[in-house]
Amino acid sequence: MKSEKVKMKEKIFNLKVVNLANAITLLRIPLFLFLIQRLEVLRLNPLLLSVFVCALFAIDGLDGWVARIFHKETLFGGFLDLATDRIIEVGFWLYLLLNTEISFIFPALIIVRVFMVDIMALSAYNKGDYRKEKLKKNNLHNNITYSKSSRAFYGTLKAISFSFMLIYYQNLYLLNIFAIILVTISLIRGFSKIVEFRKFIFEPAPIRDL
Prior knowledge:
Helices cover 80% and strands 0% of the residues. By secondary structure, it is mainly α. The chain has one domain: Up-down Bundle (Four Helix Bundle (Hemerythrin (Met), subunit A)). Helix 4 runs antiparallel to helix 9 (148-167) and helix 6 packs parallel to helix 10 (172-201). The longest helix is centred in the last third of the chain and has 30 residues, at 172-201. The protein is globular. It starts with a helix and ends in a 9-residue tail after the last helix.
């Protein structure tokens, strides 16, 4: 008979919790922490710093590609990817807030946007009708937030913007320019998602027995 340990490993494998795509996703977190820890050294070589930052956002596309190629797309993988994205994005903003003269309003707007939109997204995704609707991917909101070109544009914008802000962290003028651009695009994408989710979450809650 198989031991409980072996059965548990098989169960985890069958649920596709552990796979190459998820491992690639998780790789971004230690890479991000290493970058922040060694940032002062990396600043001595701006090109190398830019490569590290760009790699963080390039891997975001790589894990999804691997998941599709090997048919390992899972709900858990999607949530893991989302959580990793937010850890890195918010982490960069918090670093800039603590170590530069950037205005508090920029990180604050991003954090509010992240919590509001992502919680609404998880709520909407729990409903089957939303999942069916999302598969159509033929409306303006999907084109703004989910299309390959839109996601590639936003990922590239974040990579370039954070690279410049980390390299030229003492130039408040450049910091504000890139911060305004990033926050504006992020809020536009967030508003688009709220519009998309509205018919799935803004409905009467079921009456519960007290």
